[in-house]
Amino acid sequence: MSVSQSVYFDPAAETMSQDQIKDLQNRKLKEIVSYVCKNNAVYREMYREAGIDPDNFAGLSDVDKLPIISKETFRKTYPLGLLCRDKSELREMHMSSGSTGTPVVMPYTINDLNQWADCMARCYRMAGAYPGDPVQITPSFGLFNGGFGMFHGARMAELFIIPTGSGNTERQIRLAKDFGTKVLTAVVSYGIRIIEIMEKMKIDLPELKAGLFGAETLTDAMTDQIRNGLGIDVFNIYGMTETGGVGTLGCDCADHSGIHVWEDQYYLEILDPKTRKPLPDGELGELAVTSLTREALPVIRFKTGDLTRIISREKCACGRTHLKIAHISGRTDDMLIIKGVNFFPTQVEQALLEIPGVHPHYQIIIEEHAGVKDIRVNVEAEEGVTGYMVEKHLKERLGFSPKGDIFKPGTLPRQEGKAVRVFKN
Question: What's the distance, CA 124 to chain centroid?
């Protein structure tokens, strides 16, 4: 096998031993703490108040002494209060939608863009994409980082780029057919939309082999829907605005036993959401991320809000040695409390898709009367599926009986980007 056909994009980085990874993380953590203190007043004051002396910081053994930051830290310092480089060195920026307040901004130097591209190129290779393979990029090209991240990585991986962007699903399918798209990139819910339109158009895509899906929680049930509907291998890609964009944190491999995290680029902790204390491997908690190599705006102990657990630090069947985390099971701020029962929207989705004949389009509507909350679950399903069947199954899985209605397939509203699942009445 030639170097260009290796199963790894960067063999040395992707297969280094855990001892090498820890030594590297220890050194880079000390460097990044010193770096932010020298180059940013907000970090410098935050660490001074916490009693952190960057010149005597011990690295991994001292990591739990560092302050935790969150989206609120970004919003208080909007737009570039956490910047660690001169503005003249910036070459690109992206930001979150800001639907819950002031948006989160991530600026990039040229080295940051190369780091992002390298992480994404590793993800592409992990999904079986090799130089010259056609990749169709359906996330939008704009302030949202998805389209550009997929693009930067595809260029570094030397793929044949079909930069369709979002929307116009019929054209997406025709272009995939005409150009022999091998790898599809999309937000999770858009994969389901493509399946629906392909069925209407009566078009198959025999050359399509793999899909990289992100930006939304990818449950096992949704993975099965996409895998079976498109006849492809489905890969869960992970990253966020604050870490530098899609793919920066990692992706699952062909073994599909967890998401590999690029530990030479990021240090991960799983924290108790209430106490913020580190949890042992295997326990579910909130992911905190430290970026070890980014220049413009490194995050240190960034509390993501994502719930996951560390599955393994052992060498994977794919040969990679970086730790694996479980697929994101929900977010700390997504949890709903109805009639004394705590649950996440992803649990509703998983339960619904266990019912034969139910389609992966649904709405969770939160209703409140006289201070009492209840939910209504509207779902698309084939003829023969009744509201009683849905109510009974959800009660068995969630512990209470939501109201709801059954709709014919294709009648609930669609979005071309991220799907909106939860509504308030």
Answer: 15
Q: What is the mean pLDDT of the chain?
A: 91
Quick count: other Cβ atoms within 10 Å of Cβ 92?
A: 17
SS3 content of the chain, % helix, strand, coil (to 5): 35, 25, 40
Q: What is the pLDDT of residue 410?
A: 87
pLDDT of 331 over the 80 cut:
yes
Q: pLDDT band at residue 205, thresholds of 50, 70 and 90?
A: very high
Which pLDDT score, from 0 to 100, does residue 374 have?
A: 76
Separation of alpha carbons 99 and 279, rounded Å: 31
Cα 51 to Cα 290: distance, rounded to the nearest angstrom:
19
Q: What is the pLDDT of residue 341?
A: 67
What distance in Å separates the CA atoms of residue 300 and residue 292, rounded to the nearest whole number? 8
Cβ(124)–Cβ(212) below 8 Å: yes
Asked if 325 and 268 count as a contact pair (C-beta separation under 8 A), the reply is: yes
Residue with tokens 């953590």: 29
Residue 343 gets which letter from DSSP? E
Model pLDDT for residues 56-108, shown as the tens digit of each residue: 999 999 999 999 999 999 999 999 999 999 999 999 999 986 545 688 999 99
What's the mean pLDDT in 202-224? Answer: 91
Helix (H) or strand (E) holding 356: none
**Tokens describing residue 341:** 């029962």
- Would you call the peptide bond into 79 cis, given omega within 30 degrees of 0 as the criterion? yes
Instruction: Say whether 416 sits in a helix, a strand or coil.
Output: coil
User: Residue 180: left if φ>0, alpha if ψ -120 to 50, beta else—which one?
Assistant: left
- Both structure tokens of 214: 């992100």
CA 262 distance to own-chain centroid: 14
Q: Which two tokens stand for residue 72?
A: 């609120």
Cα–Cα dist 139/151, whole Å: 10
Report the relative pairing of strands 245-252 and 259-261 from DSSP bridges: antiparallel
β-sheet bridge partners, residue 38: none
Q: Helices (DSSP H) in 58-187: which residue ranges?
A: 71-76, 110-126, 146-156, 169-179
